[in-house]
Fold:
Amino acid sequence: MTLRAVIASLIGAGVLVFTITGVVAQSPTERAIDDADLKSGYDFQSEDTRALQDDDFANPGFLWVDKGAALFSEKAGKNDRACTTCHTDTVRSIKGAAARYPSVDEKTGQLINIEQRINLCRERHQQAEPLSYESEDLLAMTAYVAHQSRGQPFNAKTDGTAQSHFEAGRDYYYARKGQMNLACHHCHEWNWGQMLRGDRLSQGHGNGYPAYRFEWQTIGSLHRRLRNCDKGVRAEPLPFGAQEYVDLELYLAWRASRLTLETPSVRR
Amino acid sequence: MRCLGKGMRLLGRSYWCVAILAGLTAPLEGADLLPYDIVEDSIPNSLTGAAGDAAAGRAAFIDRDRGHCLLCHSVSSIEDPFHGTIGPDLSAIGSSLTAGQLRFRVVDQTRLSADTVMPAYYRVKGLRQVDPPFQGKPILTAQEVEDVVAYLASLKEAPE
Structure:
């Protein structure tokens, strides 16, 4: 699809309303990419990469999922409890949980992602130290928990106490930034399918994370990917776990809505 | 300052409204950048007062740390397996745009169409969250802009 065709169809659909400052105001019930055109990053990978993701025995991401499964049943912290002490298949199951994240934690009122939920459980329920972002253990645990929602569509709450976070995430999404002065939608809404030098641009969905990337030679979190995209336009990347990125994650979950989780995905 | 970039684009690349407004405000982009005058959709005079060097411009056009124009554009005479497809092919751009028009597009395409995806290469104002190593600096120096313009102007249609 050409840029102009996209713009024309957007305006035709009445989806976008531009304010004088050029910031996009968008109703939270309509998405810029039609459901029929919604594509996972998976669809933009080579046949070999897709085959690798599809094969649970060959998919390198399963090294982390398996490690996460082991950690999940290992006791930790002063309370000498494992995650499995409280979360089993029948009691407080974590199946499908990741599809509802980011989510507002009732006790603190904060919007948190899966990594932060895992760390909250460690601190709150195990009296263990939180794991640092991008550490092997947190990546493994996150990959394991997210994998328990594989095949489910995102279903995060965007109204009520989550609404202001949703709006902040949307604003970050549409804000130009960096020395190159580009916003997320310039690449992922107006130009998906096009080549950015050697990369075929996807729609920029977060449904496969943590993802194994050949470029990284390891698995990485969604925040690592977001930092890469910010750095790509010479914008100052935000710290791992930054509230702005968690808010953005909520917006991404909403715009990906009908796509199902794929963790662990494999990407170029 | 901005006209309806998108609407204007739909009406067929009619950039004049923004260009004229920009001309009226006599742009002076940041203390360290050289001033320039816009006439319609072009910056007729060299930023440095001297002509650029096309060979140096070709290098800056390709270099990942400077122009990196292949990110979005293709040029058939550059042998590289990866060319971008976001912007138009520039293989013969010197046949369709004058040096002044090329200069304006490299300096600040957003003055032509507010919603453009093409970065402004000679601008430091009105940007946010710029990574500290790049703060206060344009992507290309005035000399590099002139070199790139000379290179683009040399890209002509092959004779029949």
Observations:
- The domain at 7-154 of chain B is CATH 1.10.760.10 (Cytochrome Bc1 Complex; Chain D, domain 2).
- Confidence is low (pLDDT under 50) at residues 1-29 of chain B.
- Chain B has six helices and no strands.
- Chain B touches chain A at residues 2, 4-6, 9-10, 68, 70-72, 81-86, 110, 114-115, 117, 119-120, 127-132, 134, 137, 139 (CB under 8 Å).
